[in-house]
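Obj.: predict assembly geometry.
Materials: sequence records (below).
Method: joint structure prediction, all chains together.
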Amino acid sequence: MKRTAFFISDGTGITAETLGQSLLAQFDTIGFTKLTRPYIDSVDKARAMVQQINTAAEKDGVRPIIFDTVVNQEIRDILGQSDGFMIDIFSTFLAPLEQELSSHSSYSVGKSHSIASSSNYMERIEAVNFALDNDDGARTHYYDKADLILVGVSRCGKTPTCLYMAMQFGIRAANYPLTEEDMERLQLPAALKPYKHKLFGLTIDPDRLTAIRHERKPNSRYASFAQCEFEVREVENLFRRENIPYINSTHFSVEEISAKILVEKGVERRLK
Amino acid sequence: MKRTAFFISDGTGITAETLGQSLLAQFDTIGFTKLTRPYIDSVDKARAMVQQINTAAEKDGVRPIIFDTVVNQEIRDILGQSDGFMIDIFSTFLAPLEQELSSHSSYSVGKSHSIASSSNYMERIEAVNFALDNDDGARTHYYDKADLILVGVSRCGKTPTCLYMAMQFGIRAANYPLTEEDMERLQLPAALKPYKHKLFGLTIDPDRLTAIRHERKPNSRYASFAQCEFEVREVENLFRRENIPYINSTHFSVEEISAKILVEKGVERRLK
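Observations (raw structure tokens):
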């Protein structure tokens, strides 16, 4: 069965989308067509939205599921006239929170992902720049400023993880690729030694690594299974010998790897 | 008044955190200490969590707010014994959804941010690599593969926006810095001309740009207010002359800019 789900907001739609995705993931026998519709912030846009919802209802032969975080009551009333099944995220929780906090909700639009709500803007951009500047061992003389330094073989997922942690948490994460030379030396590279407490290792299944490297450099020694297997084995040995905590990135998303690293290293996010 | 909020999950905590942040943002007179606690997936961790909650309750003199997406009932029961005020995100919405979908929730842990739920893993990593490889005009011969090309003066926020769109939406976004030369030529650089339909402009207030550039190159001509003002004015003229849609990034977060760009260009996210 095909069913359409809309994530509708008068802001970015991030909250509606995140919660909606989580809830729908619990119903894995149903194939959902998921559509995020941010900035539905006028009566006209709401009416056009109703048209889209009704068209989907007709096409699917069943009413769409609507997750909304729209604050404006007039717009919500219009959406409520559609042929959708509405999950009202804000109204469900704001009343009990108002009571518990003895305080009134400001019912203001798009607060949580706006720049205004966050004094952290510069910190975040700084963290992204830090990740870019200190990517792939490009520079090692700013490691004193790093919150974390990810280590692992080339193409095991270090860069996306560093960027995600920077963007989402404001964490300054550098990364350093361990090369064949480092492995043969059987010890940590000199640049990393003073920062052993900041190190976190990533490893990966050799066959996945082979596939990823083939995309970049097809049929090279670098991408051969033998080479990948050798590097992974040696690096895992190094992690164990040096007591560097590590995880295998093969079966985890960037979100999962990042969350696990923060828990394991006891690092709190800088963006609040 | 100081009050602690916990975002607790047996997965990454992203859903609990996102919804919790959105709801708390509506109560802007209260100062919240926000703590995300992912991977609370055992009885022992749940008991330790209760300790933390109770300690915060004692310190604040008022019970903490708890947003949880824990699926396991035993763990939820333990958390329920704490001195916190629980907002049960999943249980609130799963029952009505089960009824509407005539289907049972799988009550499985950490579904929505796991790699398993997403066939999009490679697409996402590819998009991040595309953003990195095509950053800052480094390469222009892959613009045929780009979903979007951001243009604007140096340091107006192009790179973080491209990376965010890649990571969150799987969108392949390149970016090209418009230089003084481009401005003096009074026309689009040759590399961009064939891709005018993919272009989106970013602009920024000159005083903000001055501040950002000073961080990078203090007291340079590049960072001077006169230079920043000149570049911004010329680039905005170019955008208008060439009918390139654009927004001013000064007062928007990366999330807001990204969502606005997708709406304006009518580009659907690639990650579903």
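Conclusions so far: Chain A has a mean pLDDT of 92.
To do: check interface contacts against the pulldown list.
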